[in-house]
Request: fold
Amino acid sequence: MNRFSLKFLPYGLFMILFTLIPFLMIIWFSFTNESCGLTFENILKIGNYWGVIARSLAFALAATIICLVISYPFACFITKFSKLTQKLLIILIMLPMWTNLLLRTYAWMTILEKNGLINNFLKTLGLPQLRMINTPGAVILGMVYDFLPFMIIPIYTTISKIDKNLIEAGNDLGANSLQTFRRIILPLSVPGIVSGVSMVFVPATSTFIISQMLGGGSNALVGDLIESQFMGSTYNPWLGSALSFVLMIIIALIMAITRKFDKTETEALLN
Amino acid sequence: MKNKCLFRICVTMVLIFLYLPIFVVIIFAFNKIKSRTLFTGFTLNWFIELFKDKVIVSSLFNSFILATLASIIATVIGTLAALQIVKMKRKSQSVVMNLNYIPIVNSDVVMGISLMLLMIFILNVVGGSLGFLTVLITHITICMPYVVLTVLPKVRQVDPNMLDAALDLGCTPSKAFIKIIFPQITSGVISALVMAFSISFDDFAVSYFTAGSSFQTLPVLIYSMARKRITPKINALFAILLVLILIMLIFMNFLDIRSKKIKIKK
Reply:
């Protein structure tokens, strides 16, 4: 028995020291001030930033919905190809995921910028130039672009695992393609949708790279706010921790909601 | 038939959207002048210049060493833990797995700042400054949970009777592990290793907060460059890395297909 717990020891130590304790430290910092006294000041201060938090949630929600709208039909279409083509397409979708996020976002900067590729192109055609960078649209575009594969892959995985016999049985029993989709494919792909939604929404809410590169100063998100409390000129880890604490609660809520949704759907299916 | 055509168009459009920016980055790696929007002529100069640039080469080296060490250590620790987790009681198993999800679910900004708070606190006690060691520890921390999640399903598939049989037949526990368990979980361990490497190599947020100023990884360098202007040397580096990743992905899929074929043959 002793031998076995030795296997778990390094992992257990790492998890307690570097995951659990930092987690508790954020909570501790949220409720204390510089002289280590207990205070609600930091939490109350967050009221001043609710606009930024609301903006982060709104942008992330918009990006998630756009990702879902693109990914679902796309994932359905992929399953219609031959097995080899499917494999190739999945590699093609995963490839951007493995490349550096900063450089991919930077590429959009060069495309959207004032003297960027699109505006240069419009200029040669003699069309008026567009203002694209430093707008909410640019930030949402960056989120959709960076996180789209995280939506496609889980949805594709669940759809491709659906038993073909179920669809055939539905067809034999007289269901048309719309009914088959609504009664068989959609309910069975809910787990994929749920994990896709959380895999897009969570990083989109907390990003600070995308908003800094594509949003300019006027579209700061909660991630930017946290970053500036630690790395910027206004060093305030107490407020930064309080903001992170709020962000963690938001993420935990999202996870709870998506999990619940997932469960009720599968239960409904079993009944 | 008409449908098939529509599918093709939709799939192509999404792929164009995904690859347009990557294409732009690569095109400008071959640009004669430094501009990032005007293409004047073809050159391979930036690929040569890239390896002459000490800052880029050293941060690439840093990232490579860091990712190699972090992924190997995380894979060893995570695999050992996974072997033990399957033997736990249901209740302790669910506690461990819930804790395991914290770094995965949590946003990288929050992971970064929470580890930064801890590291600064520790360094205040023992002395020293943020640097290679602190980033290494944080990278192991963020990679380990993925390793556990990847290896655990493979460990679950291992039949415990086989291990007992080996032990009954006089195998030492360590030999039994090498001969019986390890071959059955190898594919999981390898994909965990690759995943951990890429998480560490691409990580920006956690390194940004815990690396301090003495140790610069490639993503941190790119971030500091992006605030001013990124040189085409970075574009050239991106092109090289992309080709390497593509080769690796194809190779991994090939391995995957081969192992499946072997399974079917058996």
